[in-house]
Amino acid sequence: MTTVLEKRVFTYEDIGHLPEGWYEIIDGERRDMTPIGFRHGKLENIFGEILRRNLKDKGYVATGEVGIIIRRSPLTLRAADAVYVSKKASPIEPIGMLEIAPDLIIEIVSEDNTQWEINEKVKDYLSIGVKRIIWVDPFTETITVFQHGRKEAIYLSFDEEFELIDGVMIRLKELL
Question: For the whole model, what pTM was predicted?
Answer without folding.
Answer: 0.92
